[in-house]
């Protein structure tokens, strides 16, 4: 419901500060708003016609077209707000405050940029897929575990947009990396097992030397949680719900811990319990923690050497990064030291189909190599 309200507010900003200063005839103002309204109202379409705001079930072409309009409303509002901010120093140096707002040339530039970015951003959100390689320095890492590789997938968000062929591509790219361990850090799907289960079946073919491990995300809670908790383990992966798995690797013991998601609180389900998850792992030579939301990392910093998260989608749009950062305790994407622990936040292998936009970020498969050195070397 928040998306519905936010986009209507954005439309109001566009009308008051984008249309009215440039177009003075009321009828023409309304005509121009007809360009903005489809995008402003598209969240309402997904909410009230598409079945659910959190899991829209509309044909792909509707989601693509609607997303371009929706993106246009957002990007146009951001550019108008940026122009307003730029007007402040111009006023300080003596130019009229509304100079830029009244400029038709500036209005055309903003319109063209918004249209281009909206389209490019939608295409990138559904078509990009990059392997991000990063060396992760781990304190006191045993020599036998130096060079251990972990492939991380996160936020697959299977839906009417991200279907089986996309999952097949993700699996192919991941297996080509030949990782020792694969971790899938939540938000598998938007929809029901009956509707979307078949699209997840390619994940059965994920292959890693020491196993594939997974946790739930917040989106699993929105539609048939119990059904998904039964279905996900059928994909040849170990689903960890406040549990751990102990692995013997080169004579050393590695523990993979997995937590449930805090969204459980809203539905009266099992909350994250690090003590329960860590039970029996105290003697492990290395502990790796899977927790979907990165903002809780400081609470777990003494419990693992490495924590893997997703959830933020890397902010999706660079201009929104300050907001996403604030909502996630400063953790948006990439590698962060959190006390003695390292935290890696995956940008999302896909995105939620209710917000198909990427500008300044990319769909990501991460390949981490654990190293004993004190420096991490990021490789594109």
Describe this structure in words.
By secondary structure, this protein is α/β, with parallel strands linked by helices. The protein folds into 2 domains: 125 residues, no CATH class; 251 residues, Metallo-dependent phosphatases (Purple Acid Phosphatase, chain A, domain 2), CATH 3.60.21. 39% of the residues lie in helices and 18% in strands. The strands form 2 sheets. A 7-stranded mixed sheet has the order 5-4-3-2-12-1-13, with helices on one face. Strands 6-7-8-9-11-10 form a 6-stranded mixed sheet. α11 links the parallel β8 and β9. α1 packs antiparallel against α2, α2 packs across α3 and α3 crosses α5. 44% of the residues are buried.
Key words describing this protein structure:
Purple Acid Phosphatase, chain A, domain 2, 380 residues, 13 strands, disordered C terminus, 6-stranded mixed sheet, 7-stranded mixed sheet, alpha/beta, 2 domains, 12 helices, elongated
